[in-house]
Amino acid sequence: MTTPPFRSIPLAAPDIGPEEMRLVQEALQSQRLASGPMLVRFEEAFANRFGARFAVGVSNGTAALHLAMIAAGVHDGDLVVTTPFSFIASANAILYERGIPIFVDVDPETLTIDPAKSLQVIDDIVYRKAGWRRLLPRNCNPTSAQLRAIVPIHIFGRPAQMKEIVDRAHAHQIAVIEDACEAIGAESDGVFAGRWGDASAFGFYPNKQITTGEGGMLLTDNEEWARLFRSLRNQGRATDEQWFRHDRLGFNYRLDELSAALGLAQFSRLDELLARREAVANRYSALLEEVDGATPLAAPRAGMRLSWFLYPVRLAEDLDRDQMIAALEKQGIMSRPYFWPIHLQPFYRERFGFQPGDFPHSEAAGHSLLSLPMFPGLTSDEIEWIVSVVADEIKRARRDRRGVAAARS
Ligand SMILES: Cc1ncc(COP(=O)(O)O)c(C=O)c1O
Known about the structure:
about 40% helix, alpha/beta, 14 strands, Aspartate Aminotransferase, domain 2, Aspartate Aminotransferase, domain 1, 4-stranded antiparallel beta sheet, 7-stranded mixed beta sheet, single chain, 2 domains, binds pyridoxal-5'-phosphate
């Protein structure tokens, strides 16, 4: 094979249609480029669709998580439970308020926070059970160490198991903040991801199911929190929006009108975009059934609807992921490891003293997962082509290894 038969295939690509063009143009022509009606429309549509009392648009998903940490009352040395198997922003948001992440490993199948371990950790900390301090990162010895929040992550658009966690957290007045940045429209047991907790964060980076360029959204039913979010995103402005009166330390986390217009148009197409992503995932899964060595993640359990974000496969242990990435790249196909666990990021190791082996399921996933291209415009032929390149590379790697073994014996 010399030249790839298809265009080069990115990992992700937004799907921008005529409605997006129309609404962005409308925003441009209005000359109101910030703090205007597009944001209000986007927020209203978002809140209505998910049955929330309030939606607050912000500049990105990280900002949404940060504001949720403030609302949850996270201060110096407070503890926040979450998992290390995520994008780094999930944990960074805790650090912005000088909180301490208490990582709980993921379930190895679902890759979402292990519910039984979470309940145990909550109880151990709240009741100060013997040895609870072993849950703290090595380099931390906080004095008050109040547990303020738990942040389950709906990773790859796969809903975390929430019910028991929410019940236990609320029994102890601990806030539940959902990181739904990768999971817009995902559902479990009739509840949308982002509707279990006290607040939830969504992100609209261009690799996401809907995009605003950069952008994010908070959902909450708590009126006081919604007011706080609106104030904090706007430089801490007084909640009655008085001209240049600032009641608290705030940020510029506003979502501009062009982004909101794009988001409104994308959001109106959510069902279509999710259905097309699901079709891509189904095609991958069907084709990969024939491929030994690259295994799709577990199918969703009954009552669960995924919102397909990436398409990760687990590579068998005998395969070299970097070689696979290189083989795909050679054919113009982009693929990437997802995620290198947060606790092993250099900054987290240095600051908190985390070590390899601390969270083995997250580490195993981090070692073996490879994300293949996933976006609505990926054609059936392209998916077939990608899977054939994966299958060929597996065969080649195994044949080479057998050759080396035979030469040695
Ligand atoms: C799980 C998770 N949390 C948080 C974020 C942060 O969102 P953003 O990039 O919009 O700041 C992302 C986005 O990449 C994410 O995937």
